[in-house]
Design brief:
The chain is mostly helical. The protein has 3 helices and 2 strands, in the order αββαα. The protein has a two-stranded antiparallel ribbon. β1 and β2 form a beta hairpin. The longest helix is centred in the first third of the chain and has 26 residues.
């Protein structure tokens, strides 16, 4: 596998991860009929903002595990790259 192929495969997984997150985010939002916007509940917005501003090393074990689970999706691609 070439480096450009690796980048494409990793980008594909990154997009899938982002799309999954966006589906989750929108599933938690409030859609008020007749309005142009959706609302993120304040408690979720505050939690996600805190997580975004927290370095990985200071996250809870549960939050770290969520990030590890995401990495587990791309690890097979990286392994294949280095085995070739």
């Amino acid at each position: 596998m070439s480096e450009s192929e690796l980048i494409e495969q990793l980008a594909d997984k990154e997009h899938a991860s982002w799309a999954h997150w966006m589906r989750y985010l929108f599933s938690r939002c409030v859609d008020i009929e007749g309005y142009e916007y959706v609302l993120i509940p304040r408690a979720l917005a505050e939690r996600w903002k805190r997580q975004a501003e927290t370095p990985y090393a200071h996250l809870s074990e549960q939050e770290k595990q969520s990030d590890r689970d995401e990495v587990a999706h791309i690890l097979p691609i990286i392994h294949r790259y280095f085995q070739e």
